[in-house]
Amino acid sequence: MSVIAAGTPAPSFRLARADGSSFTERDLEGQGSVLVFYPFAFSPVCTDQLQLYEGVLGELAEQGVVLYGVSCDSTWAQKAFREKLGVSSEQLSDFEPKGAACAAFGVLHEGGFPQRALIAIGPDGVVRWSCQASSPAELPPVELLREGVAASPRSDPPPEPARSRCDPGARAPARRAGGRQRVR
User: Fold this and answer.
1) 131 belongs to the catalytic site
2) Among residues 46, 72, 131, 166, which one is catalytic?
3) Which domains occur in the chain, in start order?
4) DSSP string, the chain
5) Model pTM?
6) Which pLDDT band holds residue 153 (cuts at 50, 70, 90)?
7) Tens of pLDDT along 2-53?
């Protein structure tokens, strides 16, 4: 399974918000969005990732882009995780049916959790950019998040799908757990 490609309409999906209400593809319409798929709440790399991205939420908002965290954790675990980290990005649960939205986006690991991935979706509901980390231990840097946002203009889609530094064969620095740098 591979991450959904740029130029593809966002699939139909249903995630749960902290209050139990549904979040679907319709909630993405009219704004730029980045879905940050992460394996597990409270794991070291996921903790680092959400705290790192918290620092650029204002910058994203200025560009009309909203960031959402997505995992297969329950809404209760995500709420506790969000509160413990002190992050403001909304966390969405793919707990029931477990992994269905992750599978629709092509990021469900065979172990039943999301692969670490970033998916930028334009206001028209079309995927503008996607990137899946080569391993759950790899933390995509803020620069990669910015690249995805830059590929997600507020109105017209790009003339062709944007190429990501995540493409096979590309060399992009990526942080691993513990802050080490790795070049893939």
Assistant:
1) no
2) 46
3) 14-160 (3.40.30.10)
4) --PPPTTSBPPP-EEE-TTS-EEEGGGGTTSEEEEEE-S-TT-HHHHHHHHHHHTTHHHHHHTTEEEEEEESS-HHHHHHHHHHHT--SEEEE-TTTTTHHHHHTT-B-TTSSBPPEEEEE-TTSBEEEEEE-SSTTEE--HHHHHHHHHT--SSSPPSSPPPPTTSTT---EEEEGGG-EEE-
5) 0.85
6) low
7) 999 999 999 999 999 999 999 999 999 999 999 999 999 999 999 999 999 9
